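Priority: medium. Attachment 1 of 2:
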């Protein structure tokens, strides 16, 4: 779960481009992506090449065919030091990052024309600015650029030509307890190359990766509540839910339903695999009152009862109530939803929204993904109480209907339903929506205006017909009903029942993430100094730590209240 923000008035990041991904040697011919896992001993060989004190190395170095890899690692805490810059330049050279290595590949050249490479001198290190992005809860994220003037006067994060601004992501401590990096890399690579969704990855290194940057700003907590932006998010989610699961997930983890087997839903697998790590953190906590308050073992028991309750309800009437199992993002909080600063000519309005950070993406219940988005309305990670949720800000039924309508209508368009039929289906509930137009048009600037009754849902970079031909049809989402109000009512009930699941999953996540907080507190109580605090190269900027334990207890409390209200226990 990550929140990314830039200083007020500055653009943040985006990873979506209309250009082809030229960061790999392979053409996008639809072949399967193969992933390799070097033996653990490889990490030791990395350390031998230089001092990497205080770096938590991953258990396995994960690479992907078609993506370049550098064995070097970076210490996020020393990002202002000379050794960090030196090692970063080696990584950029290893990955042949466009305009940052000694060779660049022009965007208008064919992938097979390797003689199109041209020599370009990398920027001087003393001209490069590494800017740490605030608010990330899982990784350390940086912008790497050559500013267009003195750093203190630089406007935004646009590099001086020809150098492109880069996004550098260094995996956070203990993140391997929560995230399957091999699966994440597969998802990113396939979504980008096959569906033209999500970040373009230039390559990976020992404990992170280098990604594309686009000028955008993360949504704010308040913007999530904007009716128009909410509809745009709904359309984006609908697009993602129609990605062919079998193309982005390891077949071992997600078997075809025709085989008579099916992998675990992401929410169930996450909670199951995170519980042991959460228990280890709880053993370190000395605050007995806190442990008594959350009563984690009781929560584990209650979680099992809750999950079985949802599944039993879904199985009624031959699974007619079951929310479809689709590819879900699972973490669409506002920091992971970016808005382009400059809308692109010829693009639909909803394509201003770019979804990033697919660390927790997996096959899941569609209703869980929507419920989780609604739960994020109650958060403000950059507010005065970032770890405190405010249930009173959960969207109203009218606000939820606004989302459902856009979500379902976009499915009609993707499934080929005619515009007239779509408009007819929505007419009976149009007064529930805050939409204002009934036709598509183009403004004088060339930006297409919104057409709610026939919301366009082509992807920013249109996927192939073969890719979309295997996406789930709308009938799977509406259980055969041809009336949108009925479909919305069914979706509402599905979302209502999956809502506690969001609170339960992120509660366990927060306990695991809280390990570093607990260890620091224990060292403080013992009067010990943390390792590395006297180092001359320790330049990490002071930041207000996120209170993961408070966040966990709050979500457990809401989980229990919601379950009791529904009669689960």
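Attachment 2 of 2:
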């Amino acid at each position: 779960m990550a929140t990314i923000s830039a200083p007020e008035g500055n653009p943040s990041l985006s990873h979506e481009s209309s250009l082809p991904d030229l960061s790999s040697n392979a053409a996008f011919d639809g072949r399967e992506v193969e992933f390799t896992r070097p033996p653990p001993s490889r990490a030791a060989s990395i350390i031998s090449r230089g001092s990497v004190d205080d770096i938590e190395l991953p258990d396995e170095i994960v690479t992907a065919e078609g993506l370049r890899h550098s064995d070097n690692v970076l210490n996020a805490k020393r990002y202002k030091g000379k050794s960090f810059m030196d090692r970063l330049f080696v990584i950029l050279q290893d990955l042949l990052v466009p305009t940052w290595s000694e060779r660049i590949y022009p965007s208008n050249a064919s992938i097979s024309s390797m003689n199109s490479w041209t020599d370009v001198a990398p920027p001087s290190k003393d001209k490069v600015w590494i800017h740490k992005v605030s608010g990330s809860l899982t990784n350390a994220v940086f912008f790497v650029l050559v500013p267009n003037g003195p750093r203190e006067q630089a406007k935004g994060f646009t590099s001086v030509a020809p150098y492109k601004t880069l996004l550098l992501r260094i995996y956070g401590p203990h993140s391997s307890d929560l995230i399957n990096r091999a699966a994440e890399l597969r998802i990113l690579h396939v979504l980008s190359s096959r569906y033209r969704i999500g970040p373009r990855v230039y390559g990976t290194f020992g404990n992170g990766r280098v990604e594309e940057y686009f000028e955008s700003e993360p949504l704010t907590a308040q913007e999530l509540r904007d009716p128009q932006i909410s509809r745009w998010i709904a359309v984006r989610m609908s697009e993602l839910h129609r990605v062919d699961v079998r193309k982005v997930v390891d077949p071992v983890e997600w078997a075809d339903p025709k085989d008579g087997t099916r992998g675990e839903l992401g929410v169930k697998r996450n909670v199951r695999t995170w519980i042991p790590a959460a228990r280890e953190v709880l053993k370190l906590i000395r605050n007995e009152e806190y442990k008594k308050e959350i009563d984690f073992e009781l929560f584990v028991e209650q979680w099992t009862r809750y999950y079985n309750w949802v599944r039993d309800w879904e199985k009624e009437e031959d699974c007619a109530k079951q929310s479809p199992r689709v590819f879900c993002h699972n973490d669409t909080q506002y920091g992971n939803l970016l808005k382009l600063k400059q809308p692109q000519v010829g693009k639909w309005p909803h394509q201003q929204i770019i979804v990033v950070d697919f660390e927790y993406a997996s096959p899941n219940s569609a209703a869980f993904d929507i419920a989780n988005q609604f739960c994020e309305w109650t958060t403000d990670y950059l507010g005065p109480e970032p770890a405190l949720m405010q249930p009173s800000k959960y969207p109203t039924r009218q606000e939820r209907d606004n989302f459902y309508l856009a979500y379902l209508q976009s499915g009609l368009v993707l499934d080929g339903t005619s515009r007239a039929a779509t408009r007819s289906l929505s007419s009976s509930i149009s007064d529930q929506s805050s939409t204002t137009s009934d036709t598509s048009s183009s403004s004088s600037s060339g930006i297409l205006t919104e057409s709610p009754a026939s919301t366009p849902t082509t992807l920013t970079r249109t996927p192939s017909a073969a890719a979309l031909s295997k996406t789930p049809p709308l009938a799977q989402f509406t259980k055969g009903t041809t009336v949108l109000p009925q479909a919305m009512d069914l979706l509402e009930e599905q979302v209502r029942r999956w809502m506690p699941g969001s609170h339960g999953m992120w509660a366990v996540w927060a306990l695991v993430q809280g390990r570093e907080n607990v260890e620091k507190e224990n060292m403080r109580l013992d009067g010990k100094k943390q390792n590395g605090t006297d180092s001359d190269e320790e330049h990490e900027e002071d930041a207000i730590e996120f209170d993961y334990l408070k966040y966990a207890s709050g979500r457990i409390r809401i989980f229990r209240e919601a379950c009791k209200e529904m009669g689960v226990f």
